[in-house]
Amino acid sequence: MSERLHKMLARAGLGSRREVERWIAQGWVTVNGRVARPGEQAGPEDEIAVQGRPVSIRAPEAQVVAYHKPEGEVTARKDPEGRPTVFEHLPKLRQGRWVSIGRLDLNTSGLLLFTTDGELAHRLMHPSGGVEREYAVRVLGAVEPGVLERLCQGVELEDGPARFDAIRDAGGSGANHWYHVLLREGRNREVRRLWNAEGITVSRLIRVRYGPVALGTGLRLGRWRALEPGEMQALYAAAGLAAPRRNAPRMARPPRTRRAPRK
């Protein structure tokens, strides 16, 4: 059965839908020796190659890991400035490659999810999915009640209106105060920009939950873990997809919590 080429390659773990669509637009993908066109369909009988290298379109067993990102790491496969990247610290795969579900900026720490299932990543990141992201935010100074009300009602940013779905006071002392905020979209630096729009400085930002998966207290900075079966079921349900039978990672190393190597 034929289907859209970019969807097929994403499901096979070669990249996210957006990445694959870019490869096709740049002429990197061929079908039966011919350069593929955007929107083209293909099937199991077709010979597909990316930059001249034949690829298997049989999807590997879906895997998802949670990673506790430290500050100072970039969410990219390579960094032109030579900074450490989150991908350097993930377990090696025998088949497919890791696709990040969302991003965190350089100065934000916390939960990052990675999967070999490009369709899962696409569904969880797409704005239409409305998947919750929860952040712990430390701000400097007192915050007036009116500020919190406006942040939930909506403020105007340079790329359009935005708001928090909820804000919960998490306490604090002195000049620092903590809040937990909920968002249902993943615009660039949106949490910081919302607070900054009200003249509030964010001194620390940690993502503590993505959809049904929480960071928790057991996963230390720079370490990863494979999701539990119940978490896999809940994550796929949040994406509107049928969950795989199990999350048994086929990795080059045992799927246990590991310390990330440091340069």
The number of distinct β-strands equals 18
Give the averaged pLDDT, no decimals: 87
Secondary structure category: alpha+beta
Q: Give helix % range.
A: 10-25%
| String of helices and strands | EHHEEEEEEEEHEHEEEEHEEEHE
- Which CATH C-level class of the largest domain is it? Alpha Beta
What does the overall shape look like? elongated
Number of helices: 6
- The CATH topology assignment of the largest domain is Pseudouridine synthase
Family: Belongs to the pseudouridine synthase RsuA family.
Function: Responsible for synthesis of pseudouridine from uracil-2605 in 23S ribosomal RNA.
Protein name: Pseudouridine synthase
EC number: 5.4.99.-
Keywords:
263 residues; alpha+beta; Structural Genomics Hypothetical 15.5 Kd Protein In mrcA-pckA Intergenic Region, Chain A; Pseudouridine synthase; ten-stranded mixed β-sheet; four-stranded antiparallel β-sheet; 18 strands; 19% helix
Describe the structure.
Responsible for synthesis of pseudouridine from uracil-2605 in 23S ribosomal RNA. By secondary structure, the chain is an alpha+beta fold. It folds into three domains: about 5-55, RNA-binding S4 domain (Structural Genomics Hypothetical 15.5 Kd Protein In mrcA-pckA Intergenic Region, Chain A, Roll), CATH 3.10.290.10; about 65-125 and about 210-260, Pseudouridine synthase, CATH 3.30.2350.10; about 130-210, Pseudouridine synthase (2-Layer Sandwich). The chain has helices at about 5-10, 15-25, 120-125, 145-155, 190-195, 230-240; strands at about 5, 30, 35, 40, 50, 55, 65-70, 100, 110-115, 135-140, 155, 160, 165-170, 175-185, 200-210, 215, 225, 260. Strands 7, 8, 9, 10, 13, 14, 15, 16, 17 and 18 form a ten-stranded mixed beta sheet that branches. It has a four-stranded antiparallel beta sheet with strand order 3-2-5-6, with no helix packed on it.
